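Translate sequence into structure tokens.
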Amino acid sequence: MKATPEHDERMAKMTFATVYPHYVSKVERKGRTKEELHQVIEWLTGFDEAKVKELIDLQVTFKQFFERANLHPNAELIKGMICGYRIEELENPLTQKVRYLDKLVDELAKGRKMEKILREG
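Result follows.
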């Protein structure tokens, strides 16, 4: 599936605070922890738990969230399908970064080993 400009715009305007609770419930429902979720978020963005809370409180959009992030150099190793999109084929850099995060959360929820999620080996 190819992302449309409208889809990219919707992703940019969506607030991280609206999606974060869904990330938490998804991983916890599958037996993973909020701490593991924060480990994944910090690996991708450089944001520790306190910074994530601050960004939630500020109601930042995904555009603002990723403008402030220091994306991990191995983020480009995140490949595959998420929400019907092949991550490595997404043309909009912001949409691709949001889908990176979605993919990592999905892998965590599916029980993948942390060293694999964090592209360490």
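Note: The longest helix spans residues 93-109.
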